[in-house]
Amino acid sequence: MKEILQEEIQKRGKKQVAFELGISVSTLTLYMQGKYPAPERVEERAKKIYSNGRIQCPVLGEISPAQCAENYELAEKVGRMVSNPEKLKLYRACMKCEIRK
């Protein structure tokens, strides 16, 4: 798994990969150095996100890991206070998403 993450870091940078994984840059750094106390958490999330390069979203269809992370972050910010029915549907799907847990 470290090889896959190293490749993604080379392509996108540490900050972007950490954002896509939903972890801090320091957590990613510790994991890559073999010093993170719960490596299985990072590995599990990385497998879900980077296993085939795309994520199947129940609302938007097939999206990139970056789009997934951005939509999840937006859903957390606006919550149920959104008036657009499509965004509300996306919020509900994001909050139930197994990838981000």
The gross shape turns out to be elongated
Task: Walk across the major sheet and give the strand order.
Answer: 1-2
Cα distance spanning the termini: 19 Å
Order of helices and strands: HHHHEEHH
Low-confidence stretches: none
Number of domains: 2
Oligomer: single chain
Query: Helix/strand-derived class?
Result: mainly alpha
Q: Report the mean per-residue pLDDT as an integer.
A: 89
- Overall number of strands: 2
The number of helical segments is: 6
| Helix content estimate | 55-70%
The whole-angstrom Rg is 14 Å
Which percent range describes the beta-strand content? 5-15%
Largest sheet data: 2 strands, antiparallel
Helix-strand layout with pairing:
Elements: H1 2-12, H2 14-21, H3 25-32, H4 39-50, E1 55-57, E2 61-63, H5 65-78, H6 85-96
Antiparallel strand pairs: 1-2
Helix pairs in contact: 1-2, 2-3, 2-5, 5-6
A few lines on this structure:
With 101 residues, the protein is mainly α. The chain is built from 6 helices and 2 strands; from the N terminus they run H-H-H-H-E-E-H-H. The chain has a two-stranded antiparallel ribbon with strand order 1-2.
What does this structure look like?
The chain has helices at residues 2-12, 14-21, 25-32, 39-50, 65-78, 85-96; strands at 55-57, 61-63. The chain is mainly alpha-helical. The protein has two domains: 1-51, no CATH class; 54-101, no CATH class. Strand 1 and strand 2 (61-63) form a beta hairpin. Helix 1 crosses helix 2 (14-21), helix 2 (14-21) crosses helix 5 (65-78) and helix 5 (65-78) crosses helix 6 (85-96). The model has no long low-confidence stretch (mean pLDDT 89).
